[in-house]
């Protein structure tokens, strides 16, 4: 039922967001033609000056040299047009490759296959940690200064990679590295977000429309520590962090539904355990469990976290619990607990916004792409 609804939602999205195809042929033709023209002009200029200048003074050896030079130039020109790589043009010729939807779908497929193949990790999938990488790139955005966000992939560098909140995300970056080697034309920043999109869809979540256009930036664009949420804090902190990115209460609650996926690791955040019984499948169980289960402080030698009273196998962070304690947050948690389709729709929209924060796209909003999942007919 939920799957059918999500499929029809994805179909609707696909119709609403027609596939965008770039027109590369014209610009690439112009790019390659330009040096030819320059060469032709130079050659013409040289020839013209010869014409009006030196007179023939009866020196046949000079004539022979001249003819030889002409042959050499003509031969060189022929070679230049036939073998541009001999003239250092290969790199430029490759530079005009303009990836299209089909090329990004290939990257998506390669990530999906790798997620499927490497099922020994954690609860059987790298999906959750790959999604967390995409969120932590994007979640540094500050709307006042228009800094941070997924453009740049600055988490490749210390200090950002060493920020406490990013502990453990090396696993996701390393997971995506062979994909970058296979498709060197994609920027790390576009790849990491595509990884997040792929992880959500492959874990049976909603479709997340996508636009490329992020460019990798250097270490000077690393954001200061403290921009990501602290799980030990309260509603004021949640609103301050997500408000800085430009989100409202409804979007904050929808985004946190990602905790249906994955788990906490004592050697990363210090917290321990999964939020749901199916941590590699996207569902609205996070809200259902938050509202329906009895939760108590876990008695242990770690940071303060909640434990479900019945099975003692699930956990909630203090920030998770705020979503049912705060009246405004709670109305959305209740809505999503009752209606998986409403959750998927709002989650998709909020994640799309999150992944695009601060990115100077050239491709317009109605030119987003929707990737085919590995299980789509
Ligand atoms: C108040 C907001 C949030 C807080 C305080 C928070 C905190 C945390 C913490 C402490 C972990 C455990 C990390 C570890 O030990 O490996 C975690 C994991 C995770 N978070 Fe969040 N998070 C928040 C919002 C979000 C959002 C908005 C998303 C995505 C849209 C998200 C996606 C995830 C995922 C998928 C994992 C599992 C990672 C894994 O299994 O390795 N979180 N989060």
Automatic annotation (TrEMBL):
Q: Where in the cell is it found?
A: Mitochondrion intermembrane space; Mitochondrion matrix
Q: Which UniProt keywords apply?
A: Heme, Iron, Metal-binding, Mitochondrion, Oxidoreductase, Peroxidase, Transit peptide
Enzyme Commission number, as recorded: 1.11.1.-
Domain Plant heme peroxidase family profile, by residue range, is: 186-377
- Please give the catalytic activity noted in the UniProt record: 2 Fe(II)-[cytochrome c] + H2O2 + 2 H(+) = 2 Fe(III)-[cytochrome c] + 2 H2O
CDD domains found in the cross-reference section:
ascorbate_peroxidase
Q: What class of enzyme is it?
A: oxidoreductase
Q: Mind listing the GO biological process terms from this record?
A: cellular response to oxidative stress; hydrogen peroxide catabolic process; response to reactive oxygen species
Q: Answer whether the UniProt record assigns the keyword Nucleus to this protein.
A: no
Q: Which SUPFAM superfamilies match?
A: Heme-dependent peroxidases
Q: Its Gene Ontology molecular function terms?
A: cytochrome-c peroxidase activity; heme binding; metal ion binding
Pfam families hit by this protein: peroxidase
Assembly with partners or alone: Forms a one-to-one complex with cytochrome c.
Q: What does this protein do?
A: Destroys radicals which are normally produced within the cells and which are toxic to biological systems.
Q: Which family does it belong to?
A: Belongs to the peroxidase family. Cytochrome c peroxidase subfamily.
Name of the protein: Peroxidase
């Amino acid at each position: 039922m939920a799957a059918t609804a999500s499929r029809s939602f994805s179909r609707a999205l696909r119709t609403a967001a027609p596939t965008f195809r770039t027109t590369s042929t014209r610009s690439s033709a112009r790019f390659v033609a330009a040096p030819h023209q320059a060469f032709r002009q130079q050659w013409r200029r040289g020839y013209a000056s010869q014409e009006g200048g030196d007179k023939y003074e009866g020196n046949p050896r000079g004539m022979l040299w001249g003819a030889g030079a002409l042959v050499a130039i003509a031969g060189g020109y022929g070679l230049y047009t036939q073998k541009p790589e001999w003239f250092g043009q290969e790199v430029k010729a490759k530079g005009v490759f303009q990836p299209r939807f089909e090329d990004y779908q290939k990257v998506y497929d390669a990530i999906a296959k790798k997620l499927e193949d490497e099922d020994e990790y954690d609860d059987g999938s790298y999906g959750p940690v790959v999604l967390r990488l995409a969120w932590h790139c994007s979640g540094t955005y500050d709307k006042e200064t228009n800094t941070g966000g997924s453009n740049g992939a600055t988490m490749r560098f210390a200090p950002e990679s060493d920020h406490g909140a990013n502990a453990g995300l090396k696993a996701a970056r390393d997971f995506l590295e062979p994909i970058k080697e296979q498709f060197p034309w994609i920027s790390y920043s576009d790849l990491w977000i595509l990884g997040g999109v792929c992880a959500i869809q492959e874990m049976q979540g909603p479709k997340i429309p996508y636009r490329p256009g992020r460019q990798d930036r250097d270490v000077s664009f690393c954001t200061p520590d403290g921009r990501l949420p602290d799980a030990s804090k309260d509603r004021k902190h949640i609103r301050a962090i997500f408000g800085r990115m430009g989100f409202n209460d409804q979007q904050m609650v929808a985004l946190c539904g990602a905790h249906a996926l994955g788990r906490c690791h004592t050697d990363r955040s210090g917290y321990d355990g999964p939020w749901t019984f199916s941590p590699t499948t996207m569902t609205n169980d996070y809200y259902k469990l938050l509202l329906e289960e009895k939760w108590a402080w876990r008695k242990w030698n770690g940071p303060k976290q909640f434990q479900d009273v019945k099975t003692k196998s699930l956990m909630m962070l203090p920030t998770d619990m705020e979503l049912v304690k705060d009246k405004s947050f709670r109305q959305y948690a209740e809505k999503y607990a009752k209606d998986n389709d409403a959750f998927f729709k709002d989650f998709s929209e909020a994640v799309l916004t999150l992944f695009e924060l601060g990115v100077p796209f050239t491709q317009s909003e109605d030119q987003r792409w929707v990737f085919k999942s590995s299980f789509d007919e």
